[in-house]
Write a structure and sequence with these properties.
6 strands; single chain; alpha+beta; Mago nashi protein
Amino acid sequence: MMYRNPFTPIFIVALLSGGCARSDAPDVAPPTLSILLGQTGAQGGQMQGLRIGADGAVTAWRGRSAGQNPTDRGFISESEGDSLWAWIQEADFFARARQYPGNLTRFLAVTVADSTRRATWPIGPGIGAGDDPIARLYERIMTLVE
């Protein structure tokens, strides 16, 4: 007598349907999305930048550490948050996050739920965004919130 596992049909259906699942992320920004971006290295280690909270609040800051001396700058709309999320995906940020500091360094940290990815790269005369998707993402975000 041959023994047949009763879970085999369920396993096969689950395996086949998993292959049909959408591989792209949703168009709507996750409710926990927050972004911290800025630059450091100038004027005695001073940092400056912006924070976009999960609630859409935009805060500018300047000091020796990120978030120091905050100044409220308003809010981004839900549709702008969705655009940010689309740009993050377009730049393939989570796969490209890297650490390349310089004398003057820009940084971008994206948090979703409890997971944060951070990228740093050098800036200076003659160094522009060029073909770098992360540097272009940084410039797009700055343009949106300024």
